[in-house]
Design brief:
Layout lengths: L1 H18 L8 H15 L10 E6 H5 L11 E15 L15 E9 L5 E11 L8 E4 L20 E4 L2 E4 L10 E10 L21 H10 L1 E4 L12 H4 L1 E4 L1 H9 L3 H16 L16 H14 L2 H5 L4 H18 L20 H8 L3 H17 L4 H6 L6 H17 L1 H23 L3 H14 L2 H21 L3 H10 L5 H8 L1 H4 L2 H27 L9 H9 L3 H15 L7 E3 L2 H4 L4 H13 L11 E3 H15 L4 H17 L5 H30 L1
Parallel strand pairs: 2-3, 2-8
Antiparallel strand pairs: 1-2, 3-4, 4-5, 4-10, 6-7, 7-8, 8-9, 9-10, 11-12
Helix pairs in contact: 1-12, 1-14, 2-15, 2-16, 4-6, 7-8, 7-10, 10-11, 10-12, 15-17, 16-17, 16-18, 17-18, 17-21, 21-22, 22-23, 22-26, 23-26, 25-28, 26-27, 26-28, 27-28
């Protein structure tokens, strides 16, 4: 039995090492974080373009770089601070220089320690004023020394899908797409200094060199943040419940956890899965505070990374053994009711008000044989559910090590074989997210900076695609509302590192270009960006799906009246796509509709009438490249008066395409039906003319 347990734990360890993907990887969760940052950055304060929220992806999405096979992130966390408010240490002189993102007028608050470690008050002290962008800040003391910042004024909106939990504003996105996680937005105040309550953290003695001096310096230089949430014991207090804040070390945790070895990240992931699955974060009736949380697991793992030598982790790696030891350590902490905060030693994360006895006893009884069986059943078993039926069936009988090894090997093989396809899906999802949110939420200078910065961190393709959509968005807005300084600033941000010709033309706009010329220039630049993006996609994913690179170029040629060029490109694309197994989509939002004709615009409106879900789900704002190419091919043949035999061949292509799409591809079906009717009408008219001529 012991040998079987040892084999199972080794098989499980090998499974994790082979299935946890490492960077670079376009994580769907990280992409959602980037989108949420951009949405927050879009919320500029009216009447003052420099007063703005500054977002930061935090929590699991930012901390984990591994991509396990089993989905493990439940929500996307983004903290954001107001660039008009700053916290400083008590008694320190106000700063004379601030980072560039801060406003010219900044309210400064002093940090006042409370009677509870990790919790503070913010006393309003002075106003900083910067007369010019390059000058020092001057400060003006407030008269009221006893004014404290109370409950944050940023609350959830009136949308049905928003709620609040502690300091977080939670948005449920399941109504948009089942692939979207809920989003937690946490308003905070920026604290550029390392807090005095954690003053001994950078200098305490460390036997095993983690974190090293470079990581320590980076953590300390980032400072921390302050979030409005009172300690559980103080929430009902009339004053403390409103005025108390908590120090947040999210920035530090991101740096530290990202510096972990993969084995440490995987261990942290496994501990979270076990605790959540066993419902150790809940009470029986949810009437009392949870005994332990993800933050307790995070703290446990941070301490282990500091207190254990590197060899403890990597010599003969066995995740079951590591997890057993750490769960027993947690059990001892629960029994003693003592788990020190990783940064603030005087802060105990466990207290006498928590009912820890039952959880401590459960964890103390965890042993290697039990946990091996548990992970095989609950972790690998869940991963098997994601596989094809033939792989899943193998997992139906894993009663021996040989059978278990065979089943696990097939899961690993399937995971490795689908790696490129999963990456392709992530990129396609990114297109949908970027297009939909730019169209629905518009753009600001601040959001453009955020979009480009966050997308650049994820994948080289994303900023190229964003630039194309953003240029089309600006072209559409300018054509409707005219050109002004706001759009000029947005364009300067989008085109900062590319399109030198376009930038030079923009600089001459007032004297040499009219609106229509500028719109045409932006559309042309957008098409060039999209073509470059299509080429990158074809280079990287040519074996996964049919990727034509000239669909948007053909569309632009059609818009400009170059029917011969459009027909040439569209015909080539149809031949490539007609029998392809996987097809790419072309977005149908107002940004792209401006490149199309009135018939497509009308069909888009009709599809929203026929299928109301198109109004609320991002994934339905599209048609396939094949449908668009067939439509363009048909239109150009008609305009160029091609022979009936040529159009008959096109009609056959249309019928093949119609059989490819299920009924819920409403816009594709409508567009193909329109193309079919156009061809049929043309052929009918042709034969009518022949009949009349023969009759005469």
């Amino acid at each position: 039995m012991a040998d079987e347990c040892c084999d199972a734990s080794k098989i499980f360890t090998a499974f994790l090492l082979n299935t946890c993907r490492l960077p670079p990887w376009p994580s769907l969760q990280r992409l959602q974080g980037a989108v949420l940052c951009a949405l927050i950055a879009t919320e500029d304060v009216p009447d003052d373009e420099k007063a703005k929220p500054i977002p930061l992806i935090t929590g699991s999405v930012a901390e984990f770089y591994i991509e396990p096979m089993l989905p493990f992130i439940g929500d996307v966390d983004v903290m954001f601070y107001d660039n008009t408010v700053l916290a400083i240490p008590r008694g320190h002189p106000p700063p004379t220089h601030l980072p560039a993102e801060f406003h010219n007028y900044v309210k400064v608050c002093e940090i006042i320690d409370s009677h509870l470690p990790g919790y503070v008050y913010l006393r309003v002290r002075c106003l900083l004023s910067q007369p010019n962008d390059d000058s020092k800040y001057e400060y003006y003391e407030y008269d009221d020394d006893e004014k404290y910042l109370a409950k944050n004024s940023i609350v959830a909106g009136e949308e049905n899908y928003q709620t609040t939990h502690g300091p977080a504003i939670i948005t449920d996105n399941s109504h948009v797409s089942h692939e979207l996680l809920s989003a937690d937005r946490v308003p905070c105040f920026r604290y550029l200094s390392w807090p005095s309550q954690a003053a001994d953290w950078p200098t305490r003695h460390r036997n095993y060199g983690w974190p090293d001096s470079a990581i320590l310096d980076r953590v300390v230089s980032n400072g921390c943040d302050v979030v409005h949430v009172a300690h559980r014991q103080c929430r009902q207090h009339k004053w403390m419940g409103k005025a108390q804040h908590r120090l947040s070390f999210s920035r530090a945790e991101i740096v530290l956890i990202n510096s972990w070895m993969p084995v440490q990240q995987i261990t942290y992931h496994l501990l979270r899965v076990y605790v959540k699955t066993e419902r150790l974060t809940e009470t029986a009736d949810n009437s009392k505070p949870a005994t332990i949380s993800n933050y307790h697991i995070k703290t446990l793992t941070l301490w282990a990374c500091e207190l254990k030598p590197r060899s403890w982790w990597i010599d003969d790696i066995n995740f079951v053994t590591i997890c057993v030891k750490l769960l027993q350590t947690l059990s001892a902490s629960l029994t003693d009711t003592h788990l020190p905060h990783y940064f603030i030693n005087s802060c105990n994360l466990l207290d006498k008000f928590l009912d820890v006895g039952s959880v401590a006893r459960k964890l103390s009884s965890v042993h290697k044989e039990y946990l091996s069986t548990w992970f095989i059943s609950h972790y690998v078993g869940q991963c098997a559910q994601l596989c094809p039926i033939n792989v899943l069936q193998l997992f139906g009988d894993v009663s021996t090590s040989v059978k278990l090894q065979k089943a696990v090997s097939e899961i690993v093989r399937w995971r490795l074989n689908t790696s490129l396809y999963d990456k392709w899906r992530a990129v396609i999802f990114a297109e949908m997210m970027i297009t939909g949110h730019v169209s629905l939420c518009s753009l600001t200078t601040n959001s453009c900076v955020c979009w480009i910065n966050e997308l650049t961190k994820l994948d080289e393709r994303y900023p190229v695609f964003f630039s194309s959509v953003a240029l089309l968005h600006v072209a559409l807005k300018i054509s409707r509302n005219g050109f002004n300084g706001v759009w000029k600033n947005i364009l300067s941000t989008i085109l900062r590192h590319n399109c030198s010709q376009c930038r030079s033309v923009l600089s001459r706009f007032k004297t040499e270009l009219n609106i229509s010329e500028l719109v045409e220039l932006l559309q042309k630049s957008a098409v060039e960006h999209l073509t470059t993006y299509r080429q990158l996609m074809a280079r990287d994913f040519g074996t996964v799906a049919a990727n034509v690179t000239t669909d948007i170029e053909a569309l632009y040629a059609y818009k400009r009246g170059d029917n011969q060029r459009c027909l040439q490109l569209s015909t080539q694309n149809v031949h490539t796509l007609l029998y392809a197994r996987r097809l790419r989509n072309v977005p149908i939002t107002p940004e792209f509709i401006q490149l199309m004709d009135d018939d497509i615009a009308s069909l888009t409106a009709l599809s929203m009438i026929v299928s109301p879900k198109c109004r609320s789900t991002l994934k339905d704002f599209c048609i396939t490249q094949l449908t668009l190419s067939l439509y363009l091919m048909t239109q150009c043949q008609l305009k160029l008066h091609h022979a009936v035999t040529s159009l008959a061949q096109t009609l056959d292509y249309i019928k093949v395409a119609q059989r490819k799409y299920p009924h819920w591809f409403v816009l594709d079906q409508l567009t193909l039906k329109l193309s079919e009717c156009k061809v049929a009408f043309y052929v009918l008219q042709f034969y009518k003319i022949i009949y009349v001529q023969n009759s005469c």
